[in-house]
Amino acid sequence: MNEAKNILDELNERSREVFRLVVESYLDSGDPVGSRTLTRSLSEKVSAATIRNVMQDLEYLGLLNSPHVSAGRVPTQMGLRMFVDGFLEVTDPTEADREKIEATLTGSNTADVGGMLDRVGAALSGVTRGASLVLAPKQEAEIRHIEFVSLAHDRALVVLVFAGGHVENRLFTPPPGQTPSSMREAANFLNTLIEGRTLSDARAVIRKEIAARRQQIDSLARDMVESGLAVWDDGEGDSARLIVRGRSNLLAEEGYGEELDRIRSLFDDLERKRDIEQFLDLAEEGEGVRIFIGSENKLFSLSGSSLVVSPYMNADRKIIGAVGVIGPTRLNYGRIVPIVDYTAQLVGKLISDRS
Question: What residues does the Heat-inducible transcription repressor HrcA C-terminal domain cover (predicted)?
Fold first, then answer.
């Protein structure tokens, strides 16, 4: 980013205008931009040959690229980053865009956070014509009861009963040597500690209890307790949930060619929930909207796509989730950024009001 900023500072007015027009035209059409096209748009009257020389200089600086020998230019990843940082003009979302987002939540049951966020994702995808990503907050319901059920020597079931009656069943591989008796002992031990606590609270309490009473607990039961903790930490159940909507918006785009395979690979990764927690990490680095282009972040580096993401907060101003849009690098950033920002603020307010 610093390199792009330094280059921007060194450009003269003509080079800056040519660069801006190339990027804006590319973001609008997706097509390479030629010198003759620019002669009709520049504020000063110069020849196509002069513009070609400027474009060659910009290509030498790494800001533009020529996809074919006889074609016009398109911005590189560094060029897009420089445009976003130095030229992008962001305004408020339009009234029509705001109404489409708000319409999905008006009169809805905000107690059902998962359903609300799924509707938000659908609306965000529909408005932006991209794929929306919504990272839901972790569920922190209080636990009422826990039970371990042996299914086979290498497979067991943990049953979690939450306050309000919600029940979750999770399969896991128990430590070697477990018996129905040791599983009952582990469950009894846990149930004396966890009732009325959330999973996060229970983890800390149980670990403290294990350390304090380690000599009092049968070694096999202790293994079961620790295995149960591992199950809770494995990224399923109460962990943050990623909602992906609008995949078809990306896959239906024309003109991708080889990009389609990489886009499909991206969503295969997302649907397998790889590196999902990193999505929240991206947003937690600071308030407000962040833009990642191409390989600037590991999660989307293979897709050649851009991510516009913003965190949302609860009533205590704590980041608990994020919303975002992923699309081709030629996203209409000026329109997408305020939409994502507005959606994140709206979700945060709804969750805060619910609290």
Answer: 116-337
Say how far apart CA 293 and CA 274 lie, in whole Å: 19
Helix (H, G, I), strand (E, B) or coil at 239: coil
279 vs 330, more confident: 330
In angstroms, how far is the first alpha carbon of the chain from the final one? 39
DSSP state of 73: B
Q: How far apart are CA 157 and CA 178, in angstroms?
A: 13
Burial status of residue 252 (CB atoms within 10 A of its CB: 0-12, 13-18, 19 or more): exposed
DSSP symbols for 174-207: PPTT--HHHHHHHHHHHHHHHTT--HHHHHHHHH
Hey, what are 157's tokens? Answer: 């079931």
Q: Where on the phi/psi map is residue 350: left (φ > 0), alpha (ψ -120 to 50), or beta?
A: alpha
DSSP designation for 7: H
Of 179, 180, 157, 181, the closest CA to residue 167 belongs to 157
- Does 112 have pLDDT greater than 90? no
Q: Is 211 helix (H, G, I), strand (E, B) or coil?
A: helix
Cα 347 from Cα 210, distance rounded (Å) = 39
Give tens-digit pLDDT for 292-351. Answer: 887 776 665 555 788 898 988 888 888 888 899 988 888 889 999 999 999 999 998 888
- Catalogue all structural domains in the chain, each as residue range(s) with its CATH number: 2-86 (1.10.10.10), 95-137+240-354 (3.30.450.40), 143-232 (3.30.390)
The C-alpha R_g of the chain, in whole angstroms, comes to 26
Name every residue whose Cβ is closer than 8 Å to that of residue 7 and which is 6 or more positions away in sequence: 61, 62, 63, 82
Render pLDDT for 70-105 as a digit per residue (tens, 0 to 9): 668 999 989 999 999 888 888 899 999 999 888 877
| Average pLDDT estimate for 175-199 | 80
The string of pLDDT tens digits covering residues 242-259 is: 677 777 776 666 455 565
From residue 242, how far is each of 203, 248, 311, 321 by CA, in Å?
23, 17, 13, 10
Whether residue 121 is predicted with pLDDT greater than 60 in this model: the reply is yes
CA-nearest of 194, 147, 150 to 173 is: 150
